[in-house]
Write a structure and sequence with these properties.
- The structure is a single chain.
- By secondary structure, the chain is mostly beta strands.
- The chain has one helix at 3-15; strands spanning 45-47, 57-62, 66-76, 82-87, 93-97, 102-106.
- The chain has one domain (3-106): SH3 type barrels (Roll), CATH 2.30.30.
- The two termini are 20 Å apart.
Length: 108
C-alpha cells in the first residue's frame, strides 16, 4: 500500500470519527509515520517500546499482510514483550506477543 493510499484511508477514518488526532503520541517512542492528508500529524506511527503504550489507541499489524486488531492497550508486561488490547467490537480483550512481524501502531 502506498503512502498516498494510507493517507487517504486515514483521512476518511478521521472524518468519520474512527480516529481522533487530538493527542499525538510521545515522539521518543515512535518511528516517523506517514503524514496524513489532514496536516503534519502522523496518521499511524510504529511504536517500539510497548511498555509505554498503556492507554494508547493502537492497531496491531502483521507484516506484510496488514491490520489484525484495533483497540486500546489495557496492560503490558514490564519488559514490553506482551500487551493486552481492549478490542473494538464483539470480543473484549486479546493478548499479543512482540515477535518478528507483529507490530503496534499508534493511531490516536
Amino acid at each position: 500500500m502506498s503512502t498516498t493510499e494510507v493517507n487517504d484511508i486515514a483521512a476518511a477514518l478521521v472524518l468519520k470519527g474512527h480516529i481522533k488526532m487530538t493527542n499525538p503520541p510521545t515522539p521518543a517512542i515512535l518511528d516517523h509515520g506517514q503524514a496524513s492528508a489532514l496536516g503534519n500529524q502522523p496518521c499511524a506511527t510504529k511504536a517500539h517500546e510497548w511498555h509505554l503504550l498503556v492507554g494508547q489507541r493502537v492497531e496491531i499489524r502483521q507484516s506484510p499482510s496488514g491490520m489484525l486488531d484495533r483497540g486500546v492497550v489495557e496492560a503490558t508486561t514490564k519488559d514490553g514483550q506482551i500487551l493486552w488490547l481492549a478490542l473494538e467490537g464483539a470480543l473484549s480483550r486479546r493478548m499479543y506477543v512482540k515477535e518478528p512481524g507483529i507490530e503496534a501502531w499508534i493511531t490516536g
